[in-house]
Amino acid sequence: MAPGDQAGRRRATLVGFGAIGLWALLAPLGVLTAEVPPLLLTGMAFAIGALLGTATQLARGRSPLGPRAPSALAWVLTVSAFFGYHALYFWSLRLLPPVEALLIINLWPLLIVLLSALLPGERLLPRHVVGALAGLVGVTLIVLAGDGGAGVTRQPLGYLCALACALIWSGYSVGNRRLAGDTPSEAVIGFAAATAVLALATAIVTEPLRLPTGWAWVALLAMGLGPVGAAFLLWDHATKRGDLQVLGSAAYAGPLLGAVLLLLLGHGAPSLRLLLAAVLIIGGAMLASGDLFRARRAAPPAAPAIAGERR
After folding, report:
1. pLDDT by residue (tens digit) across 137-180?
2. Which of 81, 83, 84, 102 is nearest to 92 (CA)?
3. Which of 45, 38, 64 lies closest to 53 in space, CA to CA?
4. What 3-state class would DSSP assign to 125?
5. Which one of 2, 57, 71, 89 counts the least CB within 10 Å of its CB?
């Protein structure tokens, strides 16, 4: 690989780190906007992200949807994933202690490993099974917790919402490469706009109208600009041009960053049970990833040709 190509690959990978960092902010910002119903919050956040993306593209003299129109399959896959994941994400934050919800939701890196192992040309190995079992035990530790103390909400529906989030995002991540791999990155802006319309329309029919107040407006704006806005564009660019193995490894930092931020904001208290659950869930994902975390050795340089030697 030429030095210029290596530099571009490195820059794209760093862009992906930015997306992971922005996604770690989603749970704390979701807690700060808890007064807003989940569907309304989803619609407003995606509307802000879509408006920012559209303005940026128009300022550059480009179409918000990119150089070519996305396929119908790409629209259905992405919009349904964006809408379903984030609506269930915000619901789970309201029905469970936020740190516990976040750990369950972030089973998606492990599920991506398991689902991708079932694709053509791949196979399910013992480490995949062991990693999945470790993650399952970690989630069980969270679900069976009954000593949360006064004022802590734990509703069974919250666990279903959190698990559904993990399934939706892992399914989308695997399916997106196979079913919409040729879709331009700019199309994310159109997908975000469609998600905003769908979420707002559903919210009008099913939820009370409760707008943010005070600092919740600032949190909502930050959410739309970052985790539900720029992060999707950054991640799309990084996965197409960066080092996928490094990006996949870094994705496991998301649950830890988000949980630490929630704890710093006072939403939950550190405990041995949560630490053990985090180690099992994230460690299981890392184990299932296998070669992802092994340093790749550079191919040895070819031996110089000797004059008169036949090759």
Report:
1. 877 776 666 544 445 567 889 999 999 999 998 888 777 767 76
2. 102
3. 64
4. coil
5. 2
